[in-house]
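re: ur question from earlier - yeah i can do the single chain one, its not a big deal. heres the input i used so u can compare w yours
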Amino acid sequence: MSSFRPKVSNAGGGGGGMSSEDAEQEAAERNLIRRCIDYHGPSILDLQSRLYTVASRSHHVRKLPALQAHSSHLRRMGMPIHRAAALTPSELYCTYCAHTTRAKNSTPVMCLSWTPGGRRLLTGNQEGEFTLWDGITFGFELIMSAHDTSFRAMAWSHNRNYLLTSDAGGNIKYWSPSIAPVQSLDSHSQQAIHALSFSPADTKFVSCGDDATVRIWDWASHREERVLEGHGWDVKAAEWHPRSSVIATGSKDNLVKLWDPRAGACLSTLYGHKNTVTNVAWNDNGHWLLTSSRDQLIKLYDIRNMKEVCSLKGHFKEVTSLAWHPIHETVFASGGMDGTLCYWNVGPKGSAAEPAAKVPFAHDMAIWDMQWHPAGHMLATASNDRQTKFWARNRVGSSSGLPEQEDNLVVSSSTQGGASATALGGHHHSQTDHRHKANAATAATPNSREILTDEIELGNHVGIVIGRKGQTIISMQRATGTKMHVDQGRRTLLIHGTARQIETVKKRVYALLERVSNEDAPNTTTTNNAANSGRPPHQGGGGGDAMMMG
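and the output i got, formated as tokens:
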């Protein structure tokens, strides 16, 4: 029979003390504390509230306690489904970076998907490897080889019994929920397969690739049933309608097409984009089709009348990923080539002038894929910067990612703007316009979190700032947290960041340009002296020696 030995504390003041074993046990327990996003507590709150809360769309019927903007009210924050009847979209924007994962010897993460139930996150990288992460504590669990080439897409069946994956070599694989291989298929002329999607009944699935075709497959027989041809270039996106026999595809020929998979015919063509269509996404209501493109636009179509509902402009680079919220049909997230993460609320009529929330520096490079947790309280993003990030809802009282209030912004006069521009810009800002001076004036305001845009004249030193293979500008972006782009036609450096970040970038760039100018100055002086003497530069030294000898 084991004896019970209670712990002794020094808090009472006496001679007793904690034993070495108990001290080691407590130290081990302290080391086990890790950051996590645990949704079990909010789920219990939801279950309790259903006992006395009447579900209704009217805010007069739902008598719920208001969530106050203070961290002590964090325990009252329920799941997104808790307010499905009375929508509060601001509770859905996941602008808080809960965790950043990066595997050892990592490569760019091309796609990801939550496992059934949302307990784990599955990612596929450029080396064709699966990586499994815990969805609560974000710990690493498993890595295994799955494809011979880079991952391109993965999709779960609606009943969550099987997983489909594709790679850049035209290979499609079936997987069980335990990540065991079931079947392998080769198709699309061994070219990259960019998208996979199941039919509503899970008996068929569709694939599209760089061979400009869309192919319909039978799930049970593993047989290709039909090839849909009509796009003139690589097909980058495809998705089956959630309830009907309609397939939407987007291609490099700038077109979005709707297909009937039974007849193999094109039902309609949408001509809204002016560049490669990168993504198509059906809303769960079955009426809205969301498309994104390299023309930096996101368009929302209503297929009931085949009309464009709205065109959304919030990215400054190509839009590379889209994801509708799993519960609230008007909210979706988008990712850009520059690593920007945006949240949108299109409303019942599709009107949205700008992003409802924005994370400008979510990733250093392109966001290739994003997936909402099935409960809707968290978003996972995969990026070309080799990182997978978990985004959670803001802590109560925090305004991270949300637009600034107008009364908090400091508006400076043009005179103050000119003085600030002179202090920050030096001789380069003498060529900037009044708009850039106003931006510099805002940059002088302390504690400003507004994202500003400014530029620096580079002249003949464009290559110096870019560096070999872009290493100089990439390292400067990571060090300062800004986004920079060189306009080689105008020979200017465009900077996107906060006031303090822009000021730091300017100091570094000016120091670099000054150092390069000082290094070029002796050579210029030697060349000018040689030109005045009528001799080549390399003969100047000899002439001087001859004169001294004479």
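The longest helix spans residues 499-533. not sure if urs matches, ping me
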